[in-house]
Amino acid sequence: MEPRKVQKVGYSTLSVSLPMRWAKKRRIQKGDLIFISEESDGALRLTTEPGSSEDSSVYVVDVDLCDNTKVLERVIVGNYVLGRNIIRVESKRRLMREQIESIRWVTQRLLGIGIIEEGDRHLLLQCSIDPKNFPLSTVVRRLYVITSMMFKETLDGLLDGDMELAKDAITREYEADTIYWLLARLLASAQQSRLVSEGIGISDPMDIVQSSLIARFLEMIGDRVHDVASNIIELQGFRKDGDSELIDRLTQMGQITFTMFDKAVKSIFDGNVKIASDAVDLHETIEEEERNLLKKFQGGADLDAVTIVGAIAWDLRIIAEHSSAIAEIAIVNMLKGENEICSAPEGDE
Predict the structure, then answer these.
(1) Looking at the predicted structure, is the pLDDT value of residue 19 above 90?
(2) Does the chain have fewer CB atoms within 10 Å around its N or its C terminus?
(3) Which residue range or ranges hold the PhoU domain (predicted)?
């Protein structure tokens, strides 16, 4: 950090000279325009051109350096998350059919990106997402709604023995992944550009960190719900007329977990510390439900069925842990702003 004295020019104008090394590096000359913007912490930001959230660079992916199609898919997703708009996928030889299909598959899983040009040795992908059209709170809420629907369908499928509901939950995970990667892209872009962060409704840099954690926890909860739904379908083959108590106890554990998840995420939107705290308290209840469930049925039931039930109970416990983490973020987020429960005495600011 370099200190500089403020000079008074004329009757009311205050001026500060620019560091010569910076001016030379930016090739600033007399008469050039400097653009000044104020940061949220009061700091001034100087740039030599108006800020822009558009990245017009072409990023080239060398297919020949990707060991398999999974690596290729992950590289494309990584470029998407980094906010890159034009991605050229190319090879020194003719692209193989499985490589082209892999690229098509991954672009169908990502929002706003598609193939605009295709040749024997290359594909050109373009993303047309304008961050301003995707307010952060709206996208996070959408991810919550999808995950919540998956969870409800899974529990209803368990209670009613309706495997179509469980299959619907599994299918929805693709949509949840799409929204998650969109969130990851928006947050990565917001971290790189103040214009993007303001455009999606972020005024505090700490919100980027918290929103990234919330999005990741929601995505992991969706993955666990997917696993629960898959295991419920597998469990159906072992269900017998006398298994109603097992199903009821498992459903009860699932419903408590859903309540905890629902309270945790709603506390993010409502800023209610009591709801968030109630959600955290349910964690112990779920752990106790898991212990009681496994203890009661571990001895007498079919070994394969017990294994599946144990896997479901474990996934529900992990969902509870992720939900608890979301609730704790909600509490921290609430304490950041003005609130009645915690404040600094007047005059201490």
Answers:
(1) no
(2) N
(3) 140-231, 250-329
